[in-house]
Write a sequence for this structure.
């Protein structure tokens, strides 16, 4: 699964499975996209993931590349939260040796 964190020109931030489409090189398919809502609390920031384009058939939307400001690899916590919501496999943490 190619999961990406992305920001749209509208300011919306999403996490989604990112499927590049060679047939239409001006668009990208986002599968099971979730919008990121951030709020500030006493302990820092709280992040909520909410359905984005939830009424689309097959939970897939096409987005024009010119409407994407950037894409990035999501941090592990965000990836795991996305995978647990969408039913994907949660990425285990990398093993560390503590001395």
């Amino acid at each position: 699964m190619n999961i990406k964190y992305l920001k749209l020109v509208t300011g919306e931030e999403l996490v989604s499975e990112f499927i590049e489409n060679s047939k239409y090189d001006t668009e990208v398919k986002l599968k099971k996209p979730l919008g990121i809502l951030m709020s500030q609390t006493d302990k820092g920031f709280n992040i909520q993931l909410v359905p984005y384009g939830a009424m689309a058939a097959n939970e897939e939307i096409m987005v024009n590349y010119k409407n994407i400001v950037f894409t990035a690899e999501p941090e592990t916590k965000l990836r795991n939260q996305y995978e647990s919501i969408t039913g994907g496999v949660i990425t285990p943490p990398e093993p560390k040796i503590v001395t």
